[in-house]
Amino acid sequence: MTAEENQRRKVAVVYNSFDDVSNPENVEFLSEAGVKEEADAVSQSLDRLGYKLLVLPLKNLTSDIQSIVSFQPDVIFNLCEGFRGNTQQEMFVAGIWELLNIPYTGNSALTIGTAQNKVLTKQMLRSNGLTTPDYETFPKVPPATQLQFPLIAKPSREDGSIGIGRDAVIRNLDELKTSVDRLLQRYHQEILVEQYIDGREFAVGILENGSPTALPPSEILFDALDVDLPHIASYDAKWYEDDPIYQKTPSICPTTLDFATQTRLQSLALRVYELLGGSGYGRVDFRMDALGEIYILEYNPNPDISPTAGYTKALKAAGITYDEFVTTQIDTAIKRKDHD
To answer: Model's pTM, two decimal places?
Structure first.
């Protein structure tokens, strides 16, 4: 696509506003605010590439949809991870773009909704012969569990490590009851409790450009953590840049892996992407135990694509510039719409 052709295309960069939420006490603002960094980076890239832009933080559906319709974009660059602080609205926002019949980047509303339902995703993985940690779900505080300790508990329909504290690893039944009760009271949804896999944590980004390609795996390093802290990517470790736990859990890409393990991770990531109907881009998270067994944790349909994020590091490791990534997303969205 030439610069002149880009100038004839209009792109609306739409992201979820974080300064006007419906229930402020239940919003993790740092992960919400992080979307603004993504929107800025994408907007700057599109501006360099010569597209006509509308940058819109989604706040009021009535007026915002009117603004989009009036702008008549060729593509919506969809960075909405919810609406007014409610992450469970993420799939419905994508559904609006489908109802408006406007091509949009990233995963479909159906894929977003499926991936955000962690229990449904795990059921799909299991039924297709893919390995994921053993789990149970609890709509209330459990009197017992069939799982073997240690465990880890998390809300079943959140992302971005929301609900995962630095004390999330559970070592006995009393801790399990306390953790599930706390999460139920805060998030008001079924709690997913999984077998804790002690070991290395990897992420493999997927980039679609004609066909999906697995990017070089990235790894979260836990070596510098205090000995009494579990090796997990907690909310603090992902979002609080001034917190020592953030500074001691860097993400690196490329990481040190033998060729066979890297190939296996990338192959599994592509299988998950296909199984969940991925489109555009996404990320699959893994744990690997001391014996080399790989466990699929989840598929992230809207990974962080800000300049310092792990996904962007993987693009760089693959020799792909940010502008090239943005261009592929515009082209993929239009091709998907034409195909549909």
So the answer is: 0.91
Greatest Cα pair distance, the chain, in angstroms, is 65
d(CA 283, CA 269): 8
| Numbers of helices and strands, H then E, in the chain | 12, 13
Give 230's strand partners. none
Domains and CATH numbers, the chain: 3-104 (3.40.50), 132-195 (3.30.1490.20), 198-217+253-339 (3.30.470.20)
The residues, ordered by sequence, that sit 6+ positions from 123 with a Cβ below 8 Å of its Cβ are none
DSSP codes of every residue in 186-227? HH-SPEEEEE---SEEEEEEEEEESEEEEPPPEEE--TTS-T
Q: Average pLDDT of 286-293?
A: 96
Please write the tens of the pLDDT for every residue from 79-110. 999 888 788 899 999 999 999 999 999 999 99
Between CA 210 and CA 329 the distance in angstroms is 10
Which of 228, 206, 224, 230 is closest to 310 using CA atoms?
A: 206
